[in-house]
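Work package 3, deliverable 3.1, input record:
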Amino acid sequence: GAVVSQHPSWVICKSGTSVKIECRSLDFQATTMFWYRQFPKQSLMLMATSNEGSKATYEQGVEKDKFLINHASLTLSTLTVTSAHPEDSSFYICSARDLRTGGMNEQFFGPGTRLTVL
Amino acid sequence: GQQLNQSPQSMFIQEGEDVSMNCTSSSIFNTWLWYKQDPGEGPVLLIALYKAGELTSNGRLTAQFGITRKDSFLNISASIPSDVGIYFCAGQLPGAQKLVFGQGTRLTINP
């Protein structure tokens, strides 16, 4: 149980285009999903917290108009990188919190999406 | 922002050796989680700790929630090649939804 998927697993796009990344909880309901960014050989950097049915909460320094997050259902959150530029190239990982664990804060991670902007 | 100090940053050991890594903070946490990340993949949850002093095992892995609630350690016994990867600690501050991550410990095993 507690499986999280991401799609696509990798994407290459031209500068100026927008890219959408999907994060799905496959066998549980997730009231909260989190989006992280990870640079090579570094730790995970939280970008935003996505709550189902409400606006995402962005971390300081993360542009909300650049990284659009939608959490329309208890099993799906999307991250759209708008007008992507080479500096947006990174490994993007989502995680989901299992509603069944109540107050517990176990987060289950997706496999990540490698974005390369040319 | 909040930081967790994770050490060591890297370890080079022989197969069969035991491994120990830890995380410390100046803040009190009410949850400690340990994850393992393989290259190009997302982190996988290894052990979750919820009470001060709690000691939990998962196979050859053992983790403890420090009694002061400001630290946690992870031990791996009798390491095997598939233990290679990056291990992250993560903590949840009281009242917070998000996790604070350590910098990671990169484990390399010589056969």
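Chain A is about 0% helix and 55% strand.
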